[in-house]
Design a protein that fits this description.
The protein is α/β, with parallel strands linked by helices. The protein is about 45% helix and about 20% strand. Strands 3-2-1-4-5-7-6 form a seven-stranded mixed sheet, sandwiched between helices. It is globular, with a radius of gyration of 16 Å. The protein starts with a helix and ends with a strand.
């Protein structure tokens, strides 16, 4: 595993960090609840009422909870390398937990499928380009032909003077959303140091290189982007 991904995986295995996790994403990701709703709607364009959805980076469970509540016939296979985050996902899913098989591991530990659709939210930016493309290709290989895949993660211009400006905006949004300035500063530094961000154009190219077609951006919010593509 790349050093940057390992840095964040270590924090996701820390019980204190996991206990605070549900507070974090909404402070750092503009429109997170809307992103979850859009993800379900984009999948629903192509999948049946009894679809089986692969969720990579399922720790925390918030996207599975949103999809489970909006689509009562769907079932899920959630994969995440951090066991404590999967425990949190089961707790967050509550009465819908029985509809999700949760697997501790990476994409290679996911069943072969084929799945009706897949998601990977707030996750792929932890992987360097080569591993990111390989991971997306392994998702694609587990999907039925034409099945939708929704990905969303950090992605913003990477030019010499652009990167810092966008990271400053990332931090400013978190502070404006109630984040502690000192903790936000540490988070900004961790992202700057450990996360392998790409430009939106490079991210789209990676999805196409992984075998997805008709890739479209549907979400843009400060330093975050989201795409839908088809196997």
């Amino acid at each position: 595993m790349a050093e940057g991904a390992q840095h964040f995986l270590d924090s996701f295995k820390d019980p204190a960090a996991v206990a605070r996790y549900t507070e974090g994403p909404r402070r750092f990701v503009p429109g997170l609840d809307g992103l979850h709703r859009m993800t379900g709607l984009l999948l629903a364009e192509r999948v049946s009422d009894d679809a089986h959805i692969l969720v990579l980076g399922a720790g925390g469970g918030s996207e599975m909870k949103a999809m489970a509540e909006a689509h009562p016939g769907w079932r899920f296979t959630g994969v995440d390398p951090a066991g404590p985050m999967l425990d949190l996902a089961a707790e967050v899913l509550g009465p819908n937990a029985h509809r999700a098989e949760l697997i501790e591991g990476h994409i290679d530990d996911a069943p072969a499928g084929p799945f009706d659709g897949a998601t990977c939210l707030l996750t792929l930016h932890f992987l360097a380009l080569e591993e990111r493309t390989r991971t997306a290709a392994e998702i694609q290989r587990r999907l039925k032909p034409g099945a939708p895949f929704v990905a969303a993660h950090g992605s913003f211009p990477q030019g010499a003077h652009e990167r810092d400006r966008w990271l400053d905006r990332y931090a400013a949004f978190a502070i404006a959303s109630g984040g502690d300035p000192e903790q936000v500063a540490k988070g900004r530094e961790a992202v700057a140091t450990h996360v392998a961000m790409l430009s939106p154009e490079a991210d789209e190219d990676a999805l196409r290189a992984a075998g997805f077609h008709d890739v479209e951006q549907f979400y843009a919010a400060f330093t975050w982007r989201g795409w839908v593509g088809y196997a």
